[in-house]
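chain below, 349 aa
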Amino acid sequence: MPNPFKRAAVPLSVDELLDISFRRAFKKPRPIPRRGDKVALYRSKEVSRIQTITDTVVSRLDKVVKSFPSVERLDPFYRELLDVLADANRVKHSLGAIKWASKTISRISKVYISKIKWTDNPERMAALRREATGRISSILKRIRPEVDFLREVVPRLRSLPDLDPSLPSVVIAGMPNTGKSTLLSRITTKEPEIAPYPFTTKGIIIGHQSLEGVGKVQFIDTPGLLDRPLSKRNKIEMQAVVALRHVSGLVLYLMDPTETCGYTLEEQISLLRDIVANFSEEIIVLINKKDLEGEYPDKFSKIRAHLLKEGVEFLEISAEEGLGIGTLLETIKSKLGRKYVEDSISSVG
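prediction:
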């Protein structure tokens, strides 16, 4: 599923829209009646000017409204991100204001074109045209705040990543330098893609793998979000973390017993508690860098004892050397397969 906002049109500013529409109206060649007098020529000219302005304005406004996806039909992941970035209710209000302006301008145009057609006075025609364009300008200026708001938020929405919430998904978490990127490259079929995510400095990293009995699985690493204490997140970052729950089937949490990542075991355990508290999904803890156990036997024993005491499920791997990766993929396949069968039964029930 591509980002539903990718094709949303960024509106022109009110001033730009007025400038374009007026330039077109007053530069466009006017049709000259084959037979008729100067009155008919004036009438045709003024009607054409109003119609050109109206057509230009209405087409641009309608494109903004029609290109924006239905807020009510958005997947929960993108709906939550819409709230984080823009406030869904404010977006709906702004789109409603633009739609109102389009309809109002069309109605005004018809009224004044009709009036011009019923007068034979060229001066009166010009006055009616000025009155019509003045009202059109006033309507557009009235919705300037809504237009400016969408001009600010639509580019950010368009930059959201292409995540498919319908795919079984695995979110990878853990402190920096614990081996998340290495693991992602190890368990996905090709070089993971970096996708923009406006809540992190590096975007998010997405890889895919097909697992027998499950199908295509989406693996997601979120540098800058799930790699430090959630208590230090600001409100928007925390909402972005929450949004990830909508695409998560499992969470893999990497730990580095060697502490060569730059973080103590206590700090890594604290982040694990945060993630457990904020994700209802099943979490698999991975004790990484198994190949280095000979150099840090006490630290490996310490983390095993802690996880066993807490009743936390864990696997031991070496993302660098590929140790335990087969077992990890089998575990993921088993858990995702069971989860999606349960979800299917639940949805039927």
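The CA atoms of residues 113 and 222 lie 57 Å apart. Residues 344-349 have pLDDT under 50 and may be disordered.
thats it, cya
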